[in-house]
Amino acid sequence: MFEVQVVRGEMQPWTDRTTPRPALAALLTDVVPANRRTLILGPHAPQLIESVLAHSSDVTILVRSVSDAQQLGEDFGPCLQVIAGALDGLQTPPYDVIIASDGLDRLLGYDSADLSWTARLDAVAALATPDAVVVLGLENEFSLLNLLDSRPPHERHGDDEWRPLHDDPTRPVSVDQFRTALPWQAEVYADFASRTYVRADVASAARPGELPTRLATAAVDQTDVPLLSPAHEGLDTAARAGLLASVPTGWLAIIGAQPTHDIYTESAHTVLTATQTPTGWHLTTTPATTSDTSDTASDTTGAAGELLVFDPGVVPSTISSGVSVESVLFRLAAAEDVPGFRKLAADLGDWVTDSRVVLRWDDVVYDGESFSHGVSGWVAQETVAKEDLLAAAWARFHGRLIGQHRRHPWPPWMVGDDLVSAWLGMSGVEAPEPTPATSPDTLPVASEQVAKGKQIAQTLDDLLGITNELADLRTVLAEAEAAKHELFEMKGHVYGLERTLGFRNKAMKTRENRIRELRGQLQKMTAAHDRIRDSRTYAVSRVIFHAAQVRKPKVVARKLVRKFRKR
């Protein structure tokens, strides 16, 4: 059985949670040199360890959990030397490569000394050779997600993320402080939710709608953190101010090696890398490791996978450095520039053709003159008509425009299928002929026109992991205010109905009383009529009446005389 080396500071029973990071694994593959003595500090997912083992022959990992150490020993066997304990208890010769992408927060145990972040960094530097390659992560306390997190600080980390220090004045909280604190020259990458890594200088130069901002926003949108306000607004504002590299969830410093690409990001079951060129971006896609895709493979199964699949072959090798069509449409809508919006929609209608590639206005690049597809590789199983592709793109744009409560020039009651149908008309898709409703459940013509597009858009959002299960507090408050207003209107409507019902109830009672009075009068008149008919006076009057009706009294008299004679 594989034996785990134990040093001072081990923790048991204990386990540190880790998650797969395909983009980080690809970055480590580019920076970790081959056949060097390597030390991995802190908990790392098995996929990251595999990427290091693929390049290094002598790999040691230090984890504070004895149970985690035993599991790693069983999984990797003799090719990985596992040590259980704390950083301050590790006494070994220097290493050529040190990887601490998880940071320095989960390297101390219960019995460890109260080391500050700087002291822990000095301990790591003591374990590195002068020309060592070091990969060091740092959580950003000033990150946008941390600032917008609606949870109190004591609820943001579970027991499996126990940290010995929660207030450390020596801890860097900016890119410049991070670089200054390091005893080496470093290349720093901005870490967005462990899904996208962007070179810090590239992130600082990115503006809203450009590729780094789009990928950073997509990564942050897939987190399950309850927020006070939408994160995309803060990211766009930070990008406009040139501060996108200041608000990621963390940073990753690369010392002693030069990464190959400017951006590493996770895209479905592949890893997308991008390198900036004078005219745009050069893109490459590589499959993630088998274990990396275990969580994402299920995204293309079931009903969603039957409709859309991810095809890396449709991702272009180069794209322009323009902005997304969605960002331009948002600006035109906010400025109430309807003519400009119509012109851009018409140009999009002329550009789109029948294709398998699903349209996303947040991924279609516009350089001011022409359009081009971005980094999205989601395609349909079969060729989709131009009208349905446009309907899917506009339906998704409608959800993002209205769902994000953005300003637009259209009336508030013109939402849903009617507004999407209007945008389709701007793109050159003629509305179908109206048909009379055959039943109360008959859908409007606009709903029939955008039905297929809405299905494609919803499937795409499901595959991208975009859900509304965790709404931000601002959206919740807005919805609560709208519900309060609607409740007030409904109360007024109910009050009006109650008054109307009261008036009608009184009218019904008045009519009922009048009917009773008339029924009593009718009964009296019927009784009087019966008494008159039974009287002798009435009988005589009837005889006189009939006698008055005789026109030939002599003939009647002769007949009466004959009858009397016979008797």
Topology at a glance:
Layout: E1 5-6, H1 22-31, E2 37-41, H2 46-53, E3 58-63, H3 66-76, E4 80-84, E5 95-100, H4 117-126, E6 128-139, H5 144-148, H6 175-181, E7 186-192, E8 196-199, H7 200-205, H8 211-221, H9 231-240, E9 250-255, E10 263-267, E11 270-277, E12 280-287, H10 302-307, E13 308-310, E14 318-320, E15 323-324, H11 325-334, H12 338-351, E16 355-357, E17 365-366, E18 371-372, E19 378-384, H13 386-403, H14 417-426, H15 445-464, H16 473-534, H17 536-548, H18 553-566
Parallel strand pairs: 1-4, 2-3, 2-5, 3-4, 5-6
Antiparallel strand pairs: 6-9, 7-8, 7-9, 8-10, 10-11, 11-12, 12-14, 13-19, 15-17, 16-19, 17-18
Helix pairs in contact: 1-2, 8-9, 13-14, 13-15, 14-15
Task: Give a structural overview.
With 567 residues, the protein is an alpha+beta fold. Helix content is 43%, strand content 17%. The chain is built from 18 helices and 19 strands. The strands form 3 sheets. It has a 13-stranded mixed beta sheet, with helices on both faces. A 3-stranded antiparallel beta sheet has the order 13-19-16. Helix 1 packs parallel to helix 2 (46-53), helix 8 (211-221) runs antiparallel to helix 9 (231-240) and helix 13 (386-403) crosses helix 15. The longest helix has 62 residues, at 473-534. The chain is elongated, with a radius of gyration of 40 Å. Mean pLDDT is 87; it is low at 290-301.
